Prior knowledge:
With 347 residues, the protein is an alpha/beta fold.
Amino acid sequence: MAFHPLKKIDIDAFLKLAESIPVIDVRSPSEFNQGHIPGAFNIPLFDDSERAIVGTRYKKEGRDKAIIRGIELSGPQMHRKLQSALEMARESKLLVHCWRGGMRSEAMAWLFSLGDIETEVLDGGYKSYRHHVLAGLAEKKRVIVLGGMTGSSKTRILRHIGKLSNQVIDLEALANHKGSAFGALGQPLQPSSEHFSNLLFDLWKNIDDSNPVWLEDESRNIGTVFMPDAFYDHIQLSPAIILMMSIEKRLPKLIEEYSTYPQEQLRDSVLKISKRLGGDNTRDAIAAIDSGDFAKAIEITLKYYDKAYLYSISKKHSGQIIFIETDSDDIEVNSAKVLEASKQITY
Length: 347
């Protein structure tokens, strides 16, 4: 057994090494679930209740008493933590971090060294990573925003554009939400806003700025997820291509998609926007859902979303907004129109 001295490295070096060496987050499970470095593994020094106990002891009795209590609590499980680390290590190497790069990461780095694992600790911990993420998402890149009325298949067009060797970031996929009051239907649990920004940065940092990146036009929030302010403001100032499609063309696919969900879920989604729909429209939409007239219910809500979207477009500060009329709902046809329009954009 060889003892490996503690090495602390900055966030840039840490993330570079993380491309080939596993990252171990030693914070508590609730901290990890709130947000973590994408791809990291959680081997917590303390579980949530233990962390609370040690924190209380630190505040009331000081550092030394907290350390003793921490060893008492975590000691019986140290062998399991080391076993997990040995299973996860790659070529006997791991990267480790806690919240600030202090006692928890140092303690676990020491433990891992007992298994001949060479560890490097993130200086400043997860806190330094979060500063790095927010600074990175504030960096300006060449962006094209794809907009359009609800139901014009923007997400599917965006994904098709991505298949044609264009850079695309699917914000709705990262947020596990389709963006409207009905957007949570059929989707997994949404990440926290914090973790959403971590996932977004993981893609944003790799964008080649010699070519534009395509994003879908979104509100500041996608369901319960909020975009970082600097990132959202940058998107609002970026060139936009807006696909204009009639309600008649949009209705069939929306009916096909949403009529499969239980009526109770559809009613709940309508009630989320009841104040903005108004009492009469809300009542009529719910009555249509109850009677199975999904076309009428969707048309009522579409008129609200169309009005709201056109108003939001009028408030954009960007000088470059290109509107495209289409009489087709074909994804390839509309993708071609969007790409052709993008040739007019200058930066």
